[in-house]
Specification:
globular; six-stranded parallel beta sheet; about 15% strand
Amino acid sequence: MPTAVVTGADSGIGHAWVKELLKEDYDVFALDITISSNLEALPCQSFKCDLNSQDSITQFATHFNSLSKPLDLLLNIAGIMAPKSSDSLENVTSTTLLQTFQTNAFGPLLLTQSLLPRILEAQNPRIGLMSSRVGSIADNSSGGAYSYRASKAALNSIGKSMAMDLKSKGVVVLLLHPGYVISGLDKS
């Protein structure tokens, strides 16, 4: 049975991935900052994990790594988007920037790093990073969303570097763009 770790698993795209992976007979470890009854009702292992906290990432990774299971698929889906009113040129703050970068870019990198020994043990390891077209510099025709755009651009850079570093080890790294999805991410 293949094993998957999915972040942002309590709602939206992450929750949908958990459901699909369960249908495909994956052993799913579902991570989110909150665990609701919707996630608890699924036949997976759910864990509270805050991508803004190195301690939280380390705590989950220590648990997972102690199981001595290869990690076939890591899906870094979790993401946040500040309301438009606090992510504009006039109003964005360092607090908004740091929190958004931590969740959308730094957290996926640090979680991947902490699970890398188990990823490298899998026969066909895959890492998915949920990006967004909004992170494209060339495709930015509307401005705004400073922290979200910049964090997704950073994630794209991280994903590219990760793909180059892991290619010789047989790890496929995918940057994913879901299109516009109504998921509760954009609370504006």
